[in-house]
């Protein structure tokens, strides 16, 4: 028996924000808009939360004139509002009072259960937006995946670093961050 082709609706960022403002999502819902689709975000383990805050603390000295947003939306195009675990953006919090930032210097995703989602759905968004660097802190491998050189919606460079190694952000090359310092 053949299955009928049924289209689905892709939401715009504006529609998504209106739904959120009108109370469409429960107050405790953790959702994000990726390429027009609303995804439930996986629950955070205590290790995940610890790594998010460790990453933010480790990055702060590398970006003294920038603003670190933790689990906050980026306005990436008409149909996406991903919420990276950490995003380094220019300016200060008041610069984004009326709209979310549309780019970042660096985004960090802490991934355990969300690893495939982060790799397959979110990384291409970040690359397409021209974000020069994206990190995935991979819990399963106890490693940091560093993605750089975005071209045509994908990162051309991928480096995997493990505990005992360190990384220097592209926009903060004078700083060295130990991978072990990012893990809980």
Structure summary:
The chain has 184 residues and is an alpha+beta fold. The chain has three helices and ten strands.
Structure notes:
By secondary structure, the chain is an alpha+beta fold. It has a single domain (43-182), classed as tt1808, chain A, CATH 3.90.1570. The protein contains 3 helices and 10 strands; from the N terminus they run H-E-E-H-E-E-E-H-E-E-E-E-E. It has helices at 13-21, 46-59, 115-128, and strands spanning 31-34, 37-40, 66-70, 86-90, 106-111, 133-138, 143-151, 154-162, 166-167, 177-178. A 6-stranded mixed beta sheet has the order 3-4-5-6-7-8. Strands 1-2 form a two-stranded antiparallel sheet. Strand 5, helix 3 (115-128) and strand 6 (133-138) form a beta-alpha-beta unit. The longest helix is centred in the first third of the chain and has 14 residues, at 46-59. The chain is globular, with a radius of gyration of 17 Å. The model has no long low-confidence stretch (mean pLDDT 92).
Q: Can you give the mean pLDDT?
A: 92
Please state how the strands of the largest beta sheet are arranged side by side.
3-4-5-6-7-8
Order of helices and strands: HEEHEEEHEEEEE
Low-confidence stretches: none
Helix content: 10-25%
Query: According to CATH, what is the class?
Result: Alpha Beta
What is the percentage of strand-forming residues?
25-35%
- CATH superfamily name? tt1808, chain A
Tally of distinct domains? 1
The biggest beta sheet reads: 6 strands, mixed
């Amino acid at each position: 028996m053949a299955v009928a082709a049924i289209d689905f609706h892709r939401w715009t960022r504006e529609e998504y924000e209106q739904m959120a403002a009108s109370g469409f999502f429960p107050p405790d819902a953790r959702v994000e808009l990726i390429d027009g689709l609303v995804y439930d975000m996986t629950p955070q383990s205590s290790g995940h939360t610890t790594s998010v805050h460790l990453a933010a603390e480790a990055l702060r000295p590398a970006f003294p004139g920038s603003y670190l947003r933790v689990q906050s939306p980026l306005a990436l195009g008409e149909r996406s509002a991903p919420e990276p675990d950490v995003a380094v953006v220019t300016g200060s919090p008041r610069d984004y009072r009326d709209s979310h930032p549309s780019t970042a210097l660096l985004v960090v995703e802490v991934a355990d259960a969300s690893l495939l989602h982060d790799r397959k759905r979110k990384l291409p968004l970040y690359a397409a937006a021209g974000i020069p660097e994206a990190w995935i802190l991979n819990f399963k491998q106890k490693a940091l995946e560093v993605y750089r050189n975005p071209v045509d919606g994908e990162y051309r460079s991928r480096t995997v670093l493990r505990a005992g190694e360190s990384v220097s952000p592209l926009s903060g090359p004078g700083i060295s961050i130990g991978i072990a310092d990012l893990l809980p």
